[in-house]
Amino acid sequence: METDGQFFYHPLENIEDVELFYEATERSHLTKAIASDRPYTYWTIEMYDQDNGFRGGGGLGVLAADTRRIAEKMGVPFVTIVPFYPQESKQVIKDGALVDEHIPKDYRDFGFNLIDKVYIKCCGNLCALEVIEKRFKNTRILSITEPMFGELYSDTSGSDHRLYQEVALGFGGYEALKLVGLKPAIIQLNEVATFFAALARLDELTSNGMDFYEAVVYTRKHTLYTNHTLVQAAEAEFSYEQFERYVFPNIKSLAVKKWLMEKFTNGRIKLSSVSIEIAELRSGVSKLHARVANYYDLAGNKVKFKPITNGIDLGKWVLPDILNSFKAKEIIDNQEMLAEDFADKVEQITAQEIRELKVNGRKILNEVLKTRPDQEGRILSFSGDDFIFDFKRRFVDYKRPDLPFRDTYRLRNVLESHNAHYIIAGRIHTGDENMLKKLYSILELVRKDDYLRDHVHYLCDYDEKLAFALSVGSNSAINIPIVGLEACGTSWMKDVMNYNLLISTHDGGVADASNKSYLNVSGADEHEELDNLLQRMEEAMAIWDNDFDLEYMVRLQLANFLPIISGTRMLKDYLDYLFPV
Q: Do 337 and 300 share a structural domain?
């Protein structure tokens, strides 16, 4: 077995020896393994980094982009392996209907260089994939692409095209790494769509002569599976016949092929099951998520996840004036790490400062809104005195964008008491007819009410630019997922950092701190939760009117959530977990 340029052989007679072998080997040598030619490799089916040509589907992609930027700041040799999708969709409202416009993209427009081509086998054909690369200081983005690759999440989950994209990322991406002369110190699988990267590594080790069971141990030991969903049963399945056409042709080792064949149940396979089998290291993205995620291995044992809560790149998502203020007060340092006495230093933040900085953020919001008409085609502009609630997050059922609209009479009264506005911004995945109907229902309720029509605004084509603008320009953020269904979420983190008052259920990463750390929404049923939500909205507006209350709430949120929000903390937690000294 290769470890840091040395070879360590330990013959394994049967599979029972694998766990004994793992227990007998030290992982401390991996602290020496990260280097420019042996980087931390982060595999993801999506990334949200529009400056570099990537438009993701939601928080998974935002996290991927943030993690690379944080690695760059920390000086960690790091490679993100992600497909470059040659087409993306933009959502617009035409004649009252939300429609997708499809826009072609050229990687050369974003500073990528073509390296060469690699090949995978699919349906009896040899498929050529272009390998493109963009380098930064100590990090790089390595992508595979081809003209017919399609959009992110094109077709349905479990479809042939989706499997092709995932196989291309795994096998093609692994070949791309070799093409540029890199070996992975660690493979982090960012959700199950990236499973084939670890499979490609297992196949290479075995094909190059390593004993199969040693190769299994080595691959498992150097692979981290990061799970972002709570219920295994909700994931898509693929058939044996699909694997015969797209996966098995790319496996050289008969032993690896046999190992994979044995993972099917009734001719079907879930990638989560084999991701669990191929990765010794497994993480969940919040404390609550790691505790309640309902996953089982193929032997029927409950899977344990290491809790490493997501964080954000503060330099990307925090108003520069606010970030500079944090540094001037020595709440954080230039690496965005917290001072030991940060909670005490947060007490220096004043209501006057909060209000002045939010005025600056409001100017940024108004500038962005010049190109973002609402559902009525209006170009919005808000004064510094306008109170704005926002609901900005992926438009899916469990996040409950419709909850406040289940009683439009009371919602109107709440908003009217302070002449407040409510902004909805969330992307609906193409083909999600249920959420499209829910959006139209909300907009119809708004249209029927004269006051709500002027004070509730839906902004389509939600993206990272609008996400930032709303975080810095709004007063209060609404985050109300059904408790037990949110893995982490990071939109709320941006709100807390930008002095927004957080109104939230106690779920996901929010639940890492006490429910007294923010304006908590709770109740025995959804009727009670709605009552509580509207009360919390009234409280938020009252808090904003009072300097003492505003200081108290902003300081409370920061004191409790700053240790959770820090992206530097997140990556440090991963490094400590993966490469213990």
A: no
Mean local confidence (pLDDT), 25-41: 69
Domain shared by 196 and 131, yes or no = yes
- Give me the DSSP letters along 289-330: HHHH-B-B-TTSPBPP-EE----B-HHHHS-HHHHHHHHHTT
Mean pLDDT for all residues in the chain: 92
Tokens coding 230? 């709570």
Would residue 90 count as lying in a domain? no
Number of domains in the chain: 2
Task: Output the domain CATH number for residue 548.
Answer: 3.40.50.2000
269: nearest Cα among 284, 248, 294: 248
What is the token pair recorded at 91?
């959502």
Q: Any idea which residue has 């300081």 for tokens? A: 555
Region for 502 from its dihedrals, namely left if φ exceeds 0, alpha if ψ lies in -120 to 50, beta otherwise? beta
Residue 43 lies in a domain: yes
Q: Taking the model in full, what pTM does it have?
A: 0.93
Confidence of residue 571 (pLDDT cuts 50, 70, 90): very high
In the structure, what pLDDT confidence band is assigned to residue 429 with cuts at 50, 70 and 90? confident
Please give the residue range of the domain that contains residue 233. Answer: 33-85+114-308
Mean pLDDT (whole number) for 376-394? 96
Same domain flag for 123 and 218: yes
Q: In Å, how far are 85, 198, 209 from 1, measured between CA atoms?
A: 36, 16, 10
pLDDT digits (tens, 9 = 90+) for 168-225: 999 999 999 999 999 999 999 999 999 999 999 999 999 999 999 999 999 999 999 9
Strands 125-135, 113-122: pairing kind: antiparallel
How far CA 4 is from CA of 1, 78, 163, 169, 198, in Å, comes to: 10, 17, 34, 26, 19
3-state secondary structure 358-377: HHHHHHHHHHHHCCCCCCCC
Q: Are residues 49 and 149 in the same domain?
A: yes
